[in-house]
TrEMBL record:
4-aspartylphosphate: modified positions: 51
Leader peptide range in chain numbering: none
A Pfam family recorded for this sequence: Response_reg
Descriptive protein name: Response regulator transcription factor
């Protein structure tokens, strides 16, 4: 059974989330403070749902604490909807950021997307060099993209962009993080306008794929369920 750690100090929100997770047959352990969350935290959890405003600190603090110890995925739940706050959380390694109020179905969908990504990464270890999202496949050993089994001719930059997004399928990637990864790949600078144009061209070559989702003001997410 999937074990989820919920760190949320609002009792009403916590109750609603736990009830929804139980219906989905997830096991949920809830905490109201960072101190309590640190006490109960173990590697047996597969996911952390984390409020940003907590009685004894911020979710950013607990996120950093977790990331120092594991690569466990984290989804922020918060009333803060400023782009700077969202980007800060994603840059710290959080997998997603959901602003309150939210529909419980949205939370369930985001949780499912993160868990699928984890499963995909595990399968990738077993099937080295193969990444997939819907009808898009990427053979990293051959450095070849496919759409529904047919090869797609990509430039080096388009390939690297697709690789970064598929490697992080289900995770929202801020534009600046994508730019850093593209820059690091070759040691060449890629600016914001180049990224916008490259995404547009990549989508066109993938026949206007719906799997590359634009997150307004933040960046992009490769999402299998849209």
């Amino acid at each position: 059974m999937i074990q989820i750690l919920l760190v949320e100090d609002d009792e009403n929100i916590s109750f609603g989330i736990k009830a929804a997770l139980k219906r989905k047959e997830y096991a949920c352990t809830s905490c109201t403070t960072i101190e309590e969350a640190k006490r109960v935290f173990t590697d047996s959890f597969q996911l952390v749902l984390l409020d940003l405003n907590l009685p004894d600190g911020t979710g950013y603090e607990f996120c950093s604490w977790v990331k120092e110890r594991s690569q466990m995925p984290i989804i922020f739940l918060t009333v803060r909807d400023d782009v700077k706050d969202i980007t800060r959380g994603l840059d710290m390694g959080a997998d997603d950021y959901i602003t309150k109020p939210f529909h419980i179905a949205v939370l369930e969908s985001r949780i499912a997307a993160v868990l699928r990504r984890i499963g995909s990464e595990q399968n990738t270890e077993e099937k080295k060099g193969l990444l997939s999202c819907g009808d898009i496949q990427l053979d990293t050993e051959k450095m070849q993209a496919y759409l529904d089994g047919s090869p797609v001719d990509l430039t080096a930059l388009e390939y690297r962009l697709l690789y970064v997004m598929m490697e992080n399928k289900g995770r929202t990637l801020p534009r600046n993080l994508i730019l850093e990864k593209l820059w690091d790949a070759e040691g060449n600078f890629v600016n914001d306008n180049t990224l916008t144009v490259t995404v547009k061209r990549l989508r066109k070559k993938l026949l206007d794929t719906k799997y590359i989702v634009t997150i307004r003001g933040i960046g992009y997410r490769m999402e299998e369920c849209v």
